[in-house]
Amino acid sequence: MEKQINADLLIIGGGVNGAGIARDAAGRGLAVILCEQGDLASATSSASSKLIHGGLRYLEYYQFGFVREALREREVLLGIAPHIVWPARFILPHDKRLRPALVIEAGLFLYDWLARRNRLGRSRRLDLRTAKEGAPLKDHLTTGFAYSDCRVDDARLVVLNAVDARERGADIRTRTRCVSAKREQGVWRATLLDMRVPATTIVTARALVNAAGPWAAEVLSGVIGHDAGKKLRLVKGSHIVVPRIYEGEQCYVLQNEDRRVIFVMPYEMDYSLIGTTEIPFEGDPSQARISAEEISYLCAAVSRYFREPLDPRDVAESYSGVRPLYDDGAATASAATRDYVLDLDAPDGGAPLLSVFGGKITTYRRLAEDAIERPAPQLKPPRAERWTATVPLPGGDMEDGNFDRFLRKLRGKYPWLDGATVARLARAYGTRAEMVLGDARGACDLGLDFGAGLFQAEIDYLIGQEFALTAEDILWRRSKRGLHLSPAERAQLSAYVDERVTNQRRKTSG
Question: Which residue of 182, 186, 283, 404 is surrounded by the most CB atoms within 10 Å?
Fold first, then answer.
């Protein structure tokens, strides 16, 4: 028998935009259902460069308003999520053949000025011959520039928004596809398919949000039956992960001869993350994979700047995602806007349909605010005021937002636990790390040790509290421990997760 439920808002898509909209809407008192065909952040939102930034290079395209808003959001996210968003210093070596030094200096001055209330360090010129940041770079690179932005655990940002949405009453359904949605008698009537059982649920909703990312056009045409038009420009971005190529926590921004930039950043303690490419994409976004040409492109970019050349054989891992840029007619993908466009279809007497096109992870929260307020006259949320800019995400409620002080206290409470593991748990879960560790007085109290500081207690928490259903969800999105575990350890974890999830499902259905 089909289940039938009612809601104010049905959201299709469990990436950062969908999860952010669900959180905002639930906090305003709306009854929310979110469906995601895969895992939360299983596509574009976990395949980013993992940055919260204004977008320095967008100043070249005169996108001043967009950069200013992104910089404002950078400050907001630092405040509400000090565990998964953290400051980083970026080093831009100057290549005399490319942009003039004065142009870079002027751009950085403008970047600092647009930030206004900037709690991060300001930009400055560096002598790479004497600065420690110049040590891994080639000798001919004598001048550089340093500026500040932020890094983020992108997949955890999505999950924490979904967790907060659920705690405020939202119904979050992963591995659930919306197979049809039609307007009937002034409301939306949608059919959701739970692909694990399988089972269907009929949802009656007053409004529908299409936040399906690179699938947004497909949802419009195939699920809703609307003419999608040419509103999306799909671009594949790929990254590589290699064994750590330099010491220190600084990141590097490398200018390329094609006027693109490549980021090189410390990653997961022992690795460096390098990206991204920008390749026009057609086809199924779930099948996006890095090509040999992209790997060579990224290795060549690094080799032009660093003393130690990088070879494609050095690549330990890679990932690719398809970014759904709004098609503004720009000549190249690099020049295309990263701003978002919200398309509201609300015929007289009809239920609103809001489609999200474009956007970037930095501005997801602001997008969510706009997405709720566009159909607000029809939805009439019980609480109209904006709230997400000041309320911490789960785990972000640490004193004064001071992560370092919180980490010291956590290490003091669990002195028997490896320091690197405590730091990882603090960064991933913030104040909720204590929900993972509980009253444990030794490693034996955390259950099975799956390797690399990943214990049964954390696995159980992720399954019970953070929507994890498979080993992949845990290893590559919730914890990033997949890089550190052997094939045998991964197999052991997979067997445990499958058994745990199966038993949990039996208890729920029983």
Answer: 182
